[in-house]
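Support request, please re-run this one:
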Amino acid sequence: MMTTDHRLLSIHRLKDSFEVKQVRNLGQRHFLSPLVVYVQPNSLGHPRLGFIVTRKAGSSVTRNKIKRQVREFFRCHKPELGSCDYLFVAARPLGIKSRSFWRIWKKKAETWASNQKKS
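Re-run finished. Output below.
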């Protein structure tokens, strides 16, 4: 029986401040209200994920919920996201519970990944 590995390993995360700053400074910025997503191609052969969730986004419970939701979506769709680094910045309260938000994000992420493969 073949199973797909859906774990989010440490190799799939932007780990240090240098990596986060590099994606933020050099990556393409995409406004996906209420988030800003920075996307930068990498040569690792797999996507990586990073977060910046400020206190303006809400209490610690709210901020952790935002991170869990984005992390879960990323984990489930990482094979489709291409070899890019994704940095999510949330600086205000989010209403990202709806499925339509995640459908839009998935479509945009697939577009970004396909654009990176072409170049």
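The chain has a mean pLDDT of 79. The first strand starts at residue 28 and ends at 32.
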